Amino acid sequence: MARLADYFVLVGYDHDKRGSGDGQGRIIQRFPEKEWEDNPFPQGIQLFCQPSGWHLVLERKSPNFFVAVLTDINSERHYCACFTFWEAVESSQPQKNHTNDVDDEEDSKFVQAPQLFAPKSLVLVSQLDHTEVFRNCLGLIYTIYIDSLNFPLESVIGNLLTCIIPITGGSQRTISLGAGDRQVIQTPVNDALPVSGCSVALLLKQLGINNVLELFCAALTEHKILFLSSSYQRLTEACRALLALMFPLKYSFTYIPILPAQLLEVLSSPTPFIIGIHSSFRAEMQDLLDVIVADLDGGTVLIPECIHISVLPEPHLLQTQTALSMVLDPELEYADYAFPPSSMSASSMKFQDKEIRAVFLRLFAQLFQGYRWCLQIIRIHPEPVIRFHKVAFLAQRGLLDVDFLTKVLEGMAFARFVSERGSPYRPCDLFDELVANEIERIRSEEGNAQKVLKHVKEISEQLHRNENPYPAVAMHKIQKPKEGSHLRVQQNTFPHLDEGTVQWIVDQATAKLKNAPPAVKAEMKCMVPMGPPSATMIDQNGIVLANSARRLEVVRNCITYIFENKILEAKKLLPAMLRALKGRAARQCLTQELNSHVLQNRAVLDNQQFDYIVRMMNCALQDCTPLDEHLVAAALLPLVTAFCRKLGSGVTQFAYSCIQEHLVWTNLQFWEAMFYSDVQNHIRALYLEVDGDHPSETGCDSIKKQQRSALEVAAEQLRMWPTRSKEKQQELIDKEESIVYSQAIHYGNRLTYLLLPLDTSKNRLLRSTAVGDLESVSNSFVTNSIAGSVAESYDTESGFEDAETSDVANSVVRFINRFVDKVCTESGVSNDHLKALHANLPDIVQMHIETLDAVHRESKRHPPIQKPKLLRPALLVGEELVMEGLRVNLVPDGREESVGGSLGGPPILPAEGAIFLTTYRIIFKGAPIETLAGEQTVIRSFPVASFAKEKKINQQSRTDQDSQDGLQLRSSTFQLMKITFDEEVASELVEIFRKHIHKLRYPQYVQSTFAFTVGQSPKQVVESKQKEKNPSLRTMSKNIMKNAKKTIGRQYVTRKKYTPPTWDQRATPHGDNLDQISVSEEIEQSALTLSTTIRSDKSTMSHMVERACCRDYQRLGLGTLSNSLTRSKNEPFRITTVNRMYSVCRSYPSLLIIPQTIQDSTMQRISRCYRQNRFPVVCWRNSRTKAVLLRSAGLHGKSVVGLFKSQNAPAADPSQTDSTSLAQEKYLQAVINSMPHYADTGGRNTLSGFTSAHMNSSDSSDKQRQPKISVLMKQVMGGKEEMTNTFSRGVLGHRARVITLANPRATTKGKESPQGKWGSMRGSGRLSAYSLNSDVGLRLAGKDTLSPQANGGPLDSHYLRQPRAGLYIIGEKSQLKGAKQDPSQQWEVVPIDIFDARHVKTSFKKLMKACVPSSASTDPNQSYYRSLEESDWLSQLHKLLQVSVLVVELLDNGSSVLISLEDGWDVTTQVVSLVQLLSDQHYRTLEGFRLLVEKEWLSFGHRFSHRGAQTMASQSSGFTPVFLQFLDCVHQIHLQFPMEFEFSLHYLKFLAYHYVSNRFRTFLLDSDHERIELGLMYEEKGERKNQHAYKSVWDYIDRLSKKTPVFFNYLYAPEDGEVLRPYGNISNLKVWDYYTHETLSEGPPYDWELVYSRREQVDDGERAPRTQRKIVWPCYDNQNKTEPDAISKLLEEMQSLESELGQVPDKWKETWDKIKTTQRTESKQEGKHLSSSSLLMSSSLSHHRRSQCVYLHEAAVGSTLNLSLDTDSSTTSTPSSGVMGRKSTSTLYSQFQTSESEHRSYEGILYKRGGALLKAWKPRWFVLDKTKHQLRYYDSKSDTDVKGLVDLTEVESVTLGTATLGAPKNIEDKAFFDLKTTKRVYNFCAQDSQSAQQWIDKIQSCLSDA
After folding, report:
1. Which phi-psi region, left, alpha or beta, contains residue 1278 (left: φ > 0; alpha: ψ -120 to 50)?
2. What are phi and psi of 80, to 5 degrees?
3. Per-residue pLDDT tens over the stretch 371-385
4. Lowest-pLDDT choice from 474-478, 844-848, 939-943
5. Strand duo 273-278 + 224-229: pairing
6. What is the pTM of this model?
7. Buried b / exposed e along 1573-1589 (16+ C-beta atoms within 10 A)
8. Are 1331 and 1229 in contact (CB under 8 A)?
């Protein structure tokens, strides 16, 4: 029984504190005044009466009512029912009245002061929640007051306070307050079930299903929840509803349904809460970032971004949503029916409320099913102590990974649930019945909506009956106030009540109660049903268990083999077994199988068995989640003390000493769960034994008893407890305590076993993170002495008997003490026992330490399972290991060659070995896992400087045994390593490995790269003498700068006056002439020190002369560095030292070539117009046409604007613009004037001047070049439209279109260029700097176009041929928009679209992924060729070659070219280098190519460091391989012209590899200026280099070339003056095998010492016995070595023969030269007309040609090879005949054709008119070839050199022509005929008309045949 109301309070507005800001309330009266002893009066009620604050209002409001909930310090809830009404405030304004007397009229408005109303609240405080009863009672009191009814208020309130009602039991009580009223109160049947009324249904209605489910999950997972509403009562209802939904869990945190405004700071509380506030305070919520806000009025739930709510697991979520929608909207199911049932409507709110609660009750029953089987009973007497085994519960249900349930089980609500409901003997409720008896029904009804709904209704009826046990309730009778009574004007204030009367009524009732007999609540205790045990391992998918049957078979078989000692069989199964142990089922199976082999708690194994078992245990513990780990560790714990091996006499090693490295052993929760589980088993056994003493029990009963669970046993004992005698009770208590105590000692031992490491000098416990927080930070542990002290003393500091072991011992003792304290306190062990335990523990630990010492000693003699020995890699001199090898598996990537794949053969990958990190490389070295390939060594490595990207991978390979997650390392040398780490490699080591890679890859400064740090030891840094004079490299560089200043004006004479070498001399790379202008070997090895370099000005400058640039300029005749006085004025160019201090342009070299006439002073001005100040300089000169090649950067954006405005625009700064523009014009004009045929005409480009230069040459090749340029132009422009009137006898008009060179894609816009004048601002006749000529393409092609004038007028009357320009400026289209050409100028700008560095970077990434994919692609759309095409790499090469060939043609035709693109250091460098390579055969030698790279790439400042991302500063810019692209272009040219290059393709690969490897200093830094700053420029001359550590790649190549012909091309047979014109079409380009090829036997073959030393090791028998078989494996062997070409093989054999004969072997080059000389002599003697190269057709030719798919026949005479690859018809190739005795290399290629003879369908002499204007008619021998569909012509019948050909596929018509100017005389008109092709019109003339008709007929028949 309980009081209906504890206190009645009258709270009013506090007028005394009215002035101070917000108003306040005060308690006016309280009844009873004296507090109840059992229920003190709650403080702060006045805040809750007006939650929004106490305010006076201007009009009377309607009374309102709500219930607030207050929670006291004991967590008891008090329900405060507040009834508030408003009373008029008495106006007392004496001052105002006084004022009125003074000035009545003025202040008359104050006389009528506004009437204010103050709130007043009637409050009931109760511990019961009867909202409606409270509303009625307070309403009645208000009615008596407002309507002045004749009932004394004191007696009504007294009756209310003395009303006693039952709390529970389903009784019905009628109450009356003595005012003619009657109310019936029903109490709930079971007070454990919450009473909700309609609040739950209302909440669902307000927020909807999903929002309520989110709030439900948030409340269960302990988030902060805030309700907003403008109604206080709604807030209370919503909070009550949420609590009702959580049943059977009870909310344990802050619960305030209505929070007053003054307490809003509570919302910032760190703990979870459920709080309601008025929606007027919404603005205060803005800064709450971790609170879920539910707006009841708006129906929304707002979840902040930072909060993640764990949701219900499926299928529970869906089932709950479905069930709720059926309850709330039953019509939904039938909404689509044609004939819906008529009687379908939702239940009333009251019933709906219970149905919703029923759905949630079912949900909890499903979530908690089987929970009682996981309760651990630790003590039964004197009080039950129960714990919940969370891990076991989750594991049995298969829900270890379910986040929601894990959080719920860890929450405080569940802890309270266990403490309240854990007891096995207590009253039961609806939830207990559901979870025990209805689970099977719930499971079977899943998916059947009707059955689910039926069950829900059954549960809801029970809930309804609990709240309303009596359906037929008598009617309430409550008087209510009259309508509008609260608005009456004249109202009395609420009267002051007489306290004495009320107190007297209360005292009377209290006295009666004391005399009444106490009400006894009959507690219906019973044994709580356990319910069905949850099926072990219910798997969500079911698939895993189905698949695991095979794995379990593997586990069982492997264990059987081990115990039967079939070790070989076990070894085979082990990888699969370890892989299987990643599954839960297999781990469980392992523990069961191992258990079956334990006899009497012991299993002695031999060494190998022991190792295997330990490895399995470790594996089972390793790859699992922490929760899984607990289960596995729990199952293994008894086994690790059972399995052992004998190490020696009396020394036994147990398995626990080998599995200690797992964190689970340092987890206190794990040990507690294990401890409690064992205690429970012993307690159960104790009581089964106690009960088993009754002899009367039958056998059947005793069997049933044996099957009972511990909880059932405990329930029985609790039921019998009151019946036992005191002695028996005490005996049982003692027995239980002794069980707990003995288990504590047992677990002390177990903990000691697993925490003390085998090597006690290593304190593993301190390192582990799990107990790091438990241990003290310092190394001195506060612990007890080892000698053994009592528990109180283990805080005092110990002595230091044995410093090492005491550390370990003390930390272990501390850990065990914590464990013992916790479990014994919880289990109720007495203090005496606890002290005894603490005293024993140090002794236990110390004894075990002594045992372990012996075991540790003996175990060292027994090695574990032999893993493959880690093979150490060979290192370069100076290369050092950064990290020792980490054991890894190298797994296959997307390249299928190494895994057998389509090629067959044993899989070389996966391989097991180790990964090493050195200062230079990342190296994997190991052996294949596949036993058939196991005798091989696998090496894969790449320079750490080329490391491009890492990615963490999770490898699920079939051969991946027990590896952790791995890494994928990608390199820009086209290498990929996918590695997975072995189990022994700790994750910390992997992190350190990754950090080291990044540190080495991106050093802070370039000086930290391997090229600088290699082989550094103190004595090698700088010699002592140098230290005195030159303390640092930086000082040296400053001195060089000073000396360079002094060089100007001094006389320097080169060693020998330069005379241009003849071509014969140039063809010989080691000719005298070159020797004299290159640095001789003696000087190179001279002992010049750095200090002498600095002292001597002369030597400084001579260094500059010796630089690559200068040597080359002298060779080309571009100038010498002689004094200006002796300089010949005839020389058009000179070497300038204007940039000697790098003041004009930092990225240019110090010495530059500029026109003779240009003064140094103007260069600074010119340079400002160009990006990076890179102004135009000459870099190459054509020896035949004297045309020059120039390079510069593109113009600045502002320079373009400044230079090329329209003529009418006013100049902003005329003087500056004029001077800059003029300087540029002069510069360009000087370049043009340097060419002889332009200089002769006095700078005017007249017709005679042009033709005299071109027509006097009898070289007929000029005539061939003209159409060639047109073709190239057309290709480079990429225009789609036909050129009209391609060959007409008209003359080019003054006005025509601007033709731009662009990618085909870029020209499709088709917009007209805006009209405007480019160039100079002046009106005089000076030439503008950069102006565009009209129709560049046609002019370049040497063609005419008839074009009308712009104004639509007729064509110009006079026909003048406009010749080709003297200078072409190739610029960027984007920079040169909107230009119009001045026809009188001699230079033209050719705008082209070119890719930039970003495109190269992107393209390279895609190329890497295409050539070295990380995994085999299953997507047919992502094939290798598709990926290759998408990379755009080949199209970029195509573009480069196209532009380069065009420039070559222009230079060869006598026009100079300026390449002016981007910043002048990427594409410009590529094009300029390619042009020189194609045009000048010197650059195709080893020496020349080096010179080209040094000059164009190094000196002219290609940004190697920046583009290669070599330092941390350039890391963000990414890797952009511009140089690699150039090398690829050279490779493409090499493939097409293999006889023109002295170096081999391996040479190009070598450079491609080492330009990113950072092994040499050559390709470091971005310019000569930076190299000088670091003192690198002249160090080679100054220092004696270490014999092994090469600083320059060129030195290395030179030394290596002397040893081996690896860089030499045996096919090298150059022809003097040959200009190469490669095909650039994508169909002609090949993917470089550098990108795709690899050699797994030795790693990349570009570090010769490593490969060479590796070969010696193999010869010395490093590997297994050598077999006779010789298998060449494409990705494994180095094919060049295993299958050398014939010449290399012969040279090797000669050397080995000479060695055997005791002779000193000749150098290979000498041998080779001798052979060549001998062959030449022989061929002359035999009189054969074969060149030396054709005699050298050995198997090497066949080997080199194989890639071209062209076969070489070894016939000496007449064997021919057709090298013309498939090209498009627009590219002309040189055909050949089979006759011998040729001179040109191009025809030499044509010898090697297929041996068929030439087809000549018809031949004869025709006159042909030259292609250019005014060209003469010349007789030629024409051959019509029907087979090849060609019309070829030769100089004469006997000539074999094809002069040209007409492809008949391009012929459009053959028509009779007419005689023209210069035609042969005395020939009839009908002998002329014209052949019109798509490109031009050919004019022919036969000897007579008959002959002409025959030719026409033959050509027509050829065309018709086609």
Report:
1. left
2. -105, 105
3. 888 888 888 887 788
4. 474-478
5. parallel
6. 0.49
7. bbbbbbbbbbbeeeeeb
8. no
